[in-house]
Amino acid sequence: MTAPRTPHWRLAAFSTTLLVFLAGCATTGYESVSPTPMPDLPPIVDPPARSGAPTLLIAMPNSPNFVEVRKSLVSEVRKNFNIYTLAVGPESTPADLAAAIEVVNPVCVVLMNNATMKLYRQYQTAHPTAPMPPAVLLMASFVEEVQARLRRATGIAYEVPGVTAFVHLRSVMSAPINRVGVIYRPPFRKFVEHQKSLAAKEHVELIGVSVPNDVTAAGLRGALHDLANGSKVDAIWMLNDNGLVRDAKFVDDAWRTELSDARLPLIVGVSNLVEPSSPLGTLAVVPDHEALGLQAANLIFDLADNDWKVENHPVELPLSVKTVVDVNLVRASFGLRPDALSHIDKALE
Amino acid sequence: MTLRRNRHPPRPIAWLLLGLGLLHPSHPARSAMAQGAKPAVHVFLQLDAKSSVVEKTLQQHLPQLGIVVFGRFRDFEEGLTTGRPDAVLSIRAVLEQRGKAPSLQGNRGGQSAEPYVLASVNQPLEGSLAGKTIGVVDLLGRDGTQTFLNGLLKATDVKIKRVAKIEDLLPLLEFSAADGIVLPRSMLSRLLERTRLVIKTKELPGGPVGLPAVAVLNPAVRDVIVRCFQELDAPSKRLLGIDSWSVQ
Lengths: 349, 248
What we know:
The structure holds 2 protein chains of 2 kinds.
Chain A: H1 7-24, E1 55-60, H2 64-77, E2 82-87, H3 94-104, E3 108-112, H4 114-126, E4 135-138, H5 143-148, E5 153-155, H6 162-172, E6 179-184, H7 189-201, E7 205-210, H8 217-230, E8 235-237, H9 248-262, E9 266-268, E10 283-287, H10 289-305, E11 321-326, H11 327-334, E12 346-348
Parallel strand pairs in A: 1-2, 1-3, 3-4, 4-5, 6-7, 6-8, 8-9, 9-10, 11-12
Antiparallel strand pairs in A: 10-11
Helix pairs in contact in A: 2-10, 3-4, 6-7, 8-9
Chain B: E1 2-3, H1 11-19, E2 40-44, H2 51-61, E3 66-70, H3 73-82, E4 87-91, H4 92-97, E5 104-107, E6 113-114, E7 116-121, E8 133-137, H5 141-153, E9 159-163, H6 169-174, E10 180-184, H7 188-194, E11 199-203, E12 209-210, E13 212-216, H8 222-230, H9 234-239, E14 244-247
Parallel strand pairs in B: 2-3, 2-4, 8-9, 8-10
Antiparallel strand pairs in B: 4-13, 5-13, 5-14, 6-12, 7-10, 7-11
């Protein structure tokens, strides 16, 4: 049975598709979205500089999620470092970044989003023999791959590990979660392999099904069907991959059609897909940006204590998330644990 | 020192990000005055429930007080400055760090303090902890939490990993990002319920740690605050991890 397709759902799905694109693969940065400017955001104001304190250069877009991470990070480090923030936008060039680095001579640079990291990479390429400040990479897709292309960089991955989502799902619903299915396109293969070993620590078998980059709705539906009926998984995990969530029609034709038959909980990475008026996602697990700022501060302090030897510091996994749950759906279909509501950030009914 | 403020992300980005209501700051500091003439009480505790749940419960059961619950240390710290509360409810170590004496001490099972444990995977962390990485909730800021942890562990050369919420301790073990985690023994059952890791624990030599207590900062409203908390119903007290109060 297919649930009704309301305009509300379509808007949410469309939003989600674009958001997935932005959050999940921003290697193209701003280039692939409309250049229409958004309303003015409040200007970022750095704390007053203190003489003699080392400086952190933070290069980032001036938009809400990045600002939230920065706020938390700055509140942690401001007693130890001066802060110099470079707002990065579509017109920013490597020369802008180079000028900032030259002006402040930072002890460390914090780079947020893939477009900013791309600028830094161009800066490094243009200065092949110059000493580079250590870099901390945040809020970008596949940070490990970015790290490999930069000198003196480490960071924190932005993708929420599957195991984190699976443990949260277990704490919300009564039905057992021992096998989880995930569908992925080739660029996500390495990511999914890593997730399998992490999930195994919590005794969850992650079963991956690879689909082509240009998978059709019918192809995706077939893969979902195989997971549900062949592999007998207990839940499905939807990756933040815009190729799997292209638009409302694609989501309806593939995910919605198959999952309404299979009656399996669906874990998603964006809250917009959890919508009780038009059920699809059961649990959304999204990064906790305030906590990410604290984790980044810890990382910077660790690096400082270790004489800024970033090369020895592997990319960390994000520790903290927020959860959104379609409580009606869980209660009706999978059993809501008695204490679940105390542990959910946003319970939708 | 900020460069180039006037670069704007495209409208679709902002539109979409704003759609994620969750992603806004979870708990901005609020002024005590925002809740009218009620005595303002700031609460900062690490409990087995989301801060929003604790706040809603306390607001329902302490209608004469203006309750604000903070889930994170930095928000709590900022709230103390900007909100100027009439009283603070937190564990004794947090109150003592700020030189505040409790007016009411929470008790559980006749005890005013509880042990803390060091939890690790597969085997307990025995022997020297030198160089080990230990995870702990950020209760007292960077320096304060390090001092608190050193005192609990009776060690000084431990590397600390602070997390924002008690539920964030488990990923430290799952990701092998820490050798162990420190938490109140009363929180252990919740941890074991959530994970299938084999968790081993040992009690910490530097404990026990005082249970939640109320420090009244404004003597003019001391009586009403003490009376309200003393009349708090049993389930709400249980949520706070206590079963009775004693006047100090």
